Amino acid sequence: MVNAPRKDSGNKQSIHALEATNFFLADVQTCLGPFLAAYLAGAGWGPGRVGVALTLGGIITVAVQTPAGAIVDQLRSKRSILVLASAVLAVGALLLSISAAPWAVYTSQVLVGAAGPFLGPTLAAVTMGVVGVTIFDRQFGKNQSFNSAGNVACALLIAGMSHLFGDRAIFITAALLTIPTVLSIRAIRSEEIDYDLARGGARKADGKEVAVRAPAMKTLSRDRVLLAFLACAFLFHFANAAMLPQLGEMLSHGTRSTAAPFMSACIIVTQVVIMLSATAIGRFANVHGRKPLLLLGFGVLPIRALLYTLTCNTECLIAIQVLDGLANAIFGVVSILVVADRTRATGRFNLVQGSLATAVGLGAALSTTFGGKLIQHFSYRTSFRSLGAIALAAFVLLWAAVPETLRSASGPDKEIAVAA
User: Fold this and answer.
1) Mean pLDDT lowest for which of 42-46, 52-56, 60-64, 413-417?
2) Contact between residue 113 and residue 57 where contact means Cβ atoms under 8 Å apart
């Protein structure tokens, strides 16, 4: 029988340091994400050139996701990965603060696009290595709460810094935030991290736990449940990614002066909902399973798309973002739990995390192109309804093809796809 070792809890210092790392890393990534387009536009870049710069970073991120997960599985020093990736993000931020010239922007996008994919899998791996299988879902939910709290805090910090010192202060702030990030990472005690458990690889042999590693292609290709879930993740983000940008674009045509505050309000509502709900989602998934939550998260997405076509009231549209926060909180927490369930005792936990991120990235990239074409040839309402139909297809596929993956609910260990 394949089993995974359990640790009732990790060292409290390491757990608190892990939570602080999630908080400060969210700050750094937020500074380098949504605000870049506005910064480049203010520096005289045309929409086409801004799109090329953002696309370059996105392509590199998607290309690196799966190999990054495999590298995280291979390397023992998980803290070093986090420190190095954070340092690369800081260099990218400093380049943007120095100049908005093409050489600086494109180099920064390459660095940020290459470093970002290492952060998510490594943080999840460290969490698994510190707290173990038994409470991984609860702790991962808490991590997501700290991550969203970091996003909200950073949005407020950036608003103040850019108002006082200009747009370049955004990226200087990102570089400076790397300092508390690295200090938090260093506070995670390396001896508290079970490195075999961190990659999802352990089994019982003659009464002892021994490390295992299943072939990568077997882990990815022979698990039909896992493949179906990756398809669901692709469709979920195909439907979801374009909705909020399209909403902001639609509103900006009539009231350009209020579009930016409206978008900020929508983003903050989403992040606050994630911050308040992620911990509870992890606890619920630990007791009641993954699928009920996933069905709820996937189910609210077509409803959200439909509601966007029924009102133009600003307050109502902001309120609808509660559904966005709920869907993203559930997906952000539970998708990693599903990956952990299906890769247990394979040693490929982080590899499959990378594959999930690739599916998400591809879905998000195609979503904006697909939605834009529908708006160009038809209307915003047609685009929202089409995205809602894709979301409904994702819900049906999830309901029909992805069973419950929690061990206690799904049956004996033999149901894990790849026997070590």
Assistant:
1) 413-417
2) yes
The residue with tokens 């990102």 is: 174
Q: Is the pTM of this model over 0.85?
A: no
Residue 8: Cβ-neighbour burial (10 angstroms; 0-12, 13-18, 19+)? exposed
Torsions phi, psi of 75, nearest 5? Answer: -85, 140
pLDDT in tens, 173-185: 888 888 999 999 9
* Complete domains list, the chain, with CATH: 1-196 (1.20.1250.20), 214-413 (1.20.1250.20)
- With b meaning 16 or more CB within 10 Å and e meaning fewer, what string describes 57-79? bbebbbebbbebbbbbbebeebb
- DSSP label of 190: G
Q: Minimal CA–CA distance to 286: which of 135, 130, 143, 124? A: 135
* E strand or H helix at 45: none
- HSE-CB of 29 using CA atoms within 13 angstroms: 22
Say if CB 219 and CB 388 are below 8 A apart. no
pLDDT for 27 beyond 60: no
- For the chain, the average pLDDT equals 80
